[in-house]
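Quick one, probably user error.
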């Protein structure tokens, strides 16, 4: 995966954390992520550091969701939709 893609995913995870705090009023405590002192805007940092931050933040978000038993949205009804044909 390219560095730009990892930066993009890192930013998306960072926005998910903010969504929980600002919209759901449910702060996710991310001690391990915060200890890395690396944010998506630190583009001068290397790819490996951002990858590690991405995985750490993702793990803390998933752990939070499991602990809080956040309801899961069932998208099963969408799998029954017919697939559109596309030409190259």
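Nope, works fine. Designed sequence:
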């Amino acid at each position: 995966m390219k560095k730009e893609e990892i930066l993009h995913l890192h930013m998306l995870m960072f926005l998910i954390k903010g969504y929980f705090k600002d919209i759901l009023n449910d702060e996710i405590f991310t001690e391990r992520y915060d200890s890395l002192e690396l944010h998506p805007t630190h583009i001068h940092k290397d790819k490996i550091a951002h990858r590690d931050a991405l995985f750490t933040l993702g793990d803390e978000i998933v752990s939070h969701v499991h602990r809080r038993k956040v309801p899961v949205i069932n998208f099963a009804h969408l799998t029954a939709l017919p697939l559109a044909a596309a030409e190259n």
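The mean pLDDT is 87.
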